[in-house]
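We modelled the chain as a single entity of 245 amino acids. Its sequence is:
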Amino acid sequence: MRGIAKKCCIFLMTFLLAIQMPVMASAAERLTDTGNDTVFIEENVLDGTEGIVNESYKGAYTKMRFSGKLTQVYCPKNKRTYVYKVGNMPSNGRITKVSSSNGKVAKIAIGDNNVRIKPLKAGTSTIKVTVKTGRLLTTFTSKLTVYKWSNPAASYKIGNKQLKNQFKNTNIYDYKSANNKTLKFDVKAKTGWKITSFTYYDKNWKSTSYLNSAKKIKVQKGGSVQINFTNQKTGLVENVVIRIK
């Protein structure tokens, strides 16, 4: 009986350690510029960079996740705050502490139970996020790399108007247009970059993708055209936005 009890105790301890042991995974992210924040939307794709912790709440298990690698862009003339969620956080979960090892590169804070990071200059920093669920504290560690903005567009035409130079130091340009006018977009990426999304958002944030179709778009005042360029060497995503005024 003692032998059986001992084996049961060993099994139970191994199980408890296993459900708290981080494993590696990641989430694909899509950039959307909202005017104030650049929001990353988690697509739950695993690629080996994200910390996962199993947690139990009210008898149900969940797998909390936070990316192990974060990349951001610092625009001198268009500063942004990036907002990240802790994936699959239980309803009793609360982010209690965040930190950045290099305060000159990025400023970090908690807002609405999300992680808010503001890049300040190019460089790297170690980000730590602590989540409390019941009595358990879980800390995720991520490597943040901030790149200085580099215009990824070789050409950006609306009709015959060339706009590429408008994106030298910022990713946003306000374009004046009549309401409900159809505009022709002709955009080409620089060598080493690839256009990975081409989306129009109307004034109510309803989206239409034009990545694989003709770029003739009927625009509304208050809408925007957002193009994501991905660097084929680093994987960095830069978001170029035309706001219709």
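As a brief sanity check on the tokenised model: The helical segments are 2-20. The first strand starts at residue 23 and ends at 25.
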